[in-house]
Amino acid sequence: MRSGQAAINPMVLLELIFGTRDRAGMETVQEYLRGVTNLAIAGQTWDITGELGFSLRRAGLVTAIPDLTIAASAIEHGATLLHADADFDRIAESSDLQVESYVAA
After folding, report:
1. 0.85 exceeded by the pTM?
2. Can you give the pLDDT at residue 4?
3. Contact (CB, 8 A) for 65 and 91
4. What is the Cα–Cα distance from 83 to 25, expressed in whole angstroms?
5. Is 67:88 a contact under the CB 8 Å cutoff?
6. Which residue in 13, 17, 19, 67 has the most C-beta neighbors within 10 A?
């Protein structure tokens, strides 16, 4: 992935859509993100998700599968994950995930 390039994956898109209040909001989200690079979730992403979840659980950190998948996708593509979710900071502490955290913002 190029430096400074924004990207999302299908799991992020789903979370954004599920957070909308109505069809107009859903369509707005889809329209805004139409031109953003999409990081496909494929076989290798699922392999990384499984390995990540396994190792984090052994370290005492139980994480939701959507968050694991988002983190795995970022790791796979060498992307820095921008977020406002403390779970990603905890994942980063115990993995190769690179984050830019806006939790305190």
Report:
1. yes
2. 72
3. no
4. 21
5. yes
6. 67
What are the tokens at 48? 């990384």
For the chain, give every domain's residue range: 7-101
d(CA 38, CA 17): 15
Sequence letter at residue 41: I
- Between 1 and 22, where is the model more confident? 22
Which class does domain 7-101 fall in?
alpha beta
Tokens in use for 79?
A: 């992307």
Q: State how far the Cα of 13 lies from the Cα of 19, in Å rounded to an integer.
A: 10
Residue 37 host element (H or E)? strand 37-38
Cα gap 75→95, rounded to integer Å? 9
Residue range 37-60: average pLDDT?
Answer: 95
